[in-house]
What we know:
By secondary structure, the chain is an alpha/beta fold. Helices cover 31% and strands 23% of the residues. It has a domain at 124-302 and 354-362: 2-Layer Sandwich (Dihydrodipicolinate Reductase, domain 2). It has a seven-stranded mixed sheet with strand order 8-11-12-7-13-14-15. Strand 1 (3-8), helix 1 (11-22) and strand 2 form a beta-alpha-beta unit. Helix 5 packs antiparallel against helix 9 and helix 6 (128-138) crosses helix 7. The chain is globular, with a radius of gyration of 20 Å. The relative contact order is 0.17.
Amino acid sequence: MTLRVAMVGAAWGAMAHLPAWRALGDVEVTAICTSREETARAAAQRYGIERPFWDALAMCRDPDIDIIDLGTRPNLRVPWIIAALHAGKHLYNASPHAPDWSAAKSIDNAWRASQSIGVVDAFIEHVPAVRRQIELIEQGYIGTPIGGTCHFNISLFNAPAADFPYAWFADGKAGVSGLRNNGSHALYPLMKALGPIVDLVADDRQVLAEWPFADGSRIEPETNDTGNAMLRFASGALVQLQAGWAMPQHDGWLLDLYGSEGRLMSRSPTFPTARDCKLFGAKLQDKADQHAPTDLPEVEVPQAYFGGNRVGIDADFPVPPAFPMALSMRKMVDAIHGKASAAPDFGRALEVERVMEAMRLSSAERRWVAPGNID
């Protein structure tokens, strides 16, 4: 059975989501929606998509669509998500999953009342090096987790191009920030590797008061761009998280975790993808030698992780995010057919949003907060 997919948002969706969906073979992208008729028709023609929409609610209710891929602003998505769930659609939703905690609960209630599969476009756990890192941790490579560091820093608005398509990140009503965006992407693999977070302390702030664009224009953003947190996991592990979009000469992705028996680190110069993200690590072979090497040796990731998995592209595909994204989409389609579990699903998304709300409260009130007390 071929599933019919509709995408909301053309800029990012056409670049990465479209080839990822088309790589599956048993789905067809049949519709695309933008905010205006002329842009919707132009996008449909350009990408060979049959049906243009400029009313997202109408598309979410259309009986000839099975999956809705929502890739635009978090605050705009909420009514579309709920309408799509009420109409029995399956959802592939961008991260951050919701603009705030209240909206996250509304989405969760609608999802749990439905029979729909809901997946979040937080595909870092499907990047081969990170996927292997999580598996090795689950297999006991590092022993009992003790601590670590996670960085996800990129330079979005230090010197943006004049036509940069995400200037709307400045909108305080959009439900985005450096910590909500990059931090949520980081929390999915962190929580998959280490389990639930029992308490945290966070600082969320703005360090760029102005965005100077290449054409001389400037924006004074209403959003925060830099977040730091200390996360205590139920296992006892304590992890430092830094996430944002305002670091000059950014350090990209780092997930460095250690335990009683060893250490594993995945690293990428930017948003982690299949080829540029590498895995490093070492086990404590000699119990008398407690000194880890300064430079961890690279850990080989099996070649099978870079292709196959019933998707028609591999890690060498010229749009780097498309391959791990296609792996996430593959699991979603298999889940719709009752053959697999989707990941990360809307249940995990609620827990990530719960942690994000705890971070917001912690930063505002300058105190430790237990996510489990958020309801």
